[in-house]
Design a protein that fits this description.
The complex is a heterodimer of chains A (about 300) and B (about 400). Chain A is about 85% helix and about 0% strand. Chain A is mainly α and about 300 residues long. Chain A has a domain of about 200 residues: Orthogonal Bundle (MetI-like fold). By secondary structure, chain B is α/β, with parallel strands linked by helices. In chain B, strands 6-7-8-3-9-10 form a six-stranded mixed sheet. A four-stranded antiparallel sheet of chain B has the order 2-1-4-5. The chains are: A mainly alpha (about 300), B alpha/beta (about 400). Chains A and B meet through helix 9 and helix 10 of A and helix 4 and helix 6 of B.
Chain lengths: ~300, ~400
Amino acid sequence: MRPSDLLTIPLDDWVNSFVRDWLVPNFRPFFRSLQWPITQVLNALDGLLNATPMIVLTAVLAFIAWRTAGRSVAIFTIIALVFIDMIGQWPETMTTLSMVVTAVLFCTVLGVPLGIIAAGSDRFQAVLRPILDIMQTIPSFVYLVPIVMLFGVGMVPGIIATIIFALPPIIRLTNLGIRNVRHDLIEAANAFGSTRWQTLWEVQLPLAMRTIMAGLNQTLMLALSMVVIAALIGAGGLGLTVYTGLGRLDVGNAMAGGIGIVLIAIILDRITQALGEARQMRRTSLLQTLRSMISTAGPGKQTTERAG
Amino acid sequence: MKAKVEAKNIFKIFGDDPKSAQNMLEEGRSKEEIFEATGLTIGVQDASFAVQQGEIFVIMGLSGSGKSTLVRMINGLIAPTSGEMLVDGTDIANCSPQQMREIRRTKVAMVFQHFALFPHKTVGENAAYGLKIKGMGAAERRERALAALEQVGLRAHADSYPDELSGGMQQRVGLARGLAAEPEVLLMDEPFSALDPLIRSDMQEELLELQRSMKKTIIFITHDLDEALTLGDRIAIMHNGAIVQIGTAEEIVDKPADDYVAAFTKDIDRSRVFTAQSVLSPAEAIDLSKDTAASAIERMEQLNRDAIYVLDGDRIAGTVTYRDLTASMRDNGAALSDAIIADYPTTKSTTPLHELYPLCESGLPIAIVGRKGRLEGIVEPQAVLAKVASDSDEAA
């Protein structure tokens, strides 16, 4: 005697008919149109990265790494990129980089505002939280099929799958960062007549920036971990190298792709982590960040000056 | 004279159904009874006060007395359940959000207990915060922020970050931030409580010094009666959300309204609260041109005094003692002028009693001198002791 003897729930049929018979015929054009901005950003980035000579791009990335994370990370960046080029993975790496950056860009654009709203409304947070839990725990293979049905195959659907997977941390940590801003500072901002926007911009976001950057870092890492899975639905780059290597039992090729992913991951992780360090907490405006990147003082110098 | 800030029958009840608690209050139930019956907390009950332009008004009470709640109703951070809070005649409780912001930007600034400085902004940017919020240009607000920092002696630290400063310096920045917007009313919520005692008294001195030139209307919250007595032109004492007494420092120490206030004032240093004015006696001076040694002795016997002041026209010639005069009389009729002691103790009527102690040493009455050196009265050394001692005897 089992419950299924009494009643069986045809969940699979329901989902099938919901997706196939209702969602796809009715909303396919709508979902297709969602791809447009992603396509634009991806193409622009991909074009830019592939058009830039390898030497120039390496120099630029090393410079960014030097300004944000210090000399050792910069040296590592140069060595890693030269190595990637030597093992013949440069074009694939650029494709992966543009994919990941596009996905992270859209995660930020969506995630930070959602996190801000969640920080301001307990009710919104209560609704959002289980959705984020589902997004993080559901195996990505489960939503690959409906994504293919709605968006087709290719780079952009791969990026969309990546966005779904990588979005939660930046929302969660933006929410957390803003909620953790000291209450008396908010009160002080109010007492001087700040509007909600002014409080957000002048006090909450700068003070939450460190936590938000930690969220960005996690989002970036999750996005990188999706590149192989995104290759299953037609995304190119290093993921595809690994995937085809796997299919043909070509261990060498799969390993080359895998090393490329790991090296890119380390570089991006170090840079974004450094952006979230204490020093950055104070230099929060984009202009100031840029200014500090080009100013003559290295990142270590300012902190020691302050300590002394 | 119209009050700058006026509270009329302010109630604040925290919880969902404030009306029921208010009805119970009107029935005369206590804060604890209401909390037990309804779960509602009475923050402030029936508080009324009026603060005049240019006055330091201290609201004193222990934690939980509702003083912080009350002060936050002056700039609308907390809305009263009922009653009116008038700032320049505008009822804060019925302001639109725009009006409220305007009042906070231009009229009422606040200084916080734990400084509440923005850690990501420099000292200069912190001081300029209120001005930036108003939309003032970068150059002008920097200049005004520096001027405000100058007032509190921190101009040189404008480009430091708050965490590089000591507690006392941080609160000066808090004060500068409040002053930079040139508000008419300054709310200070226990601004010095988080500081060391020595720094605290320095800051009190400095605040009084600043106030002499600023003449702002200051509403100052504290749980420290000594601080209240030092700073306050007038003091309101709160207990369980209600104001139990409003008065000057002397009134509160001299005539406590109830046992609660009396218990507070019992241990304070009375010699710092009372001034020479409170123990002033009429001078009953004699005149050098009219009186003789004999009439001086007669006068002292009449008044039952050991010494008396001698005037030469409007000028104080000095003082003569009974003992000197009777001695010189025995040695055969010396003149009054020969017995005059020119080195007499003197002070102003506003001097606190504790500063009179050294002057009492000579045993001579202290001359209280007003403007243009006029003799306003005298203070007998015994009277000083009697005033300082009086109520502590009763309490014991």
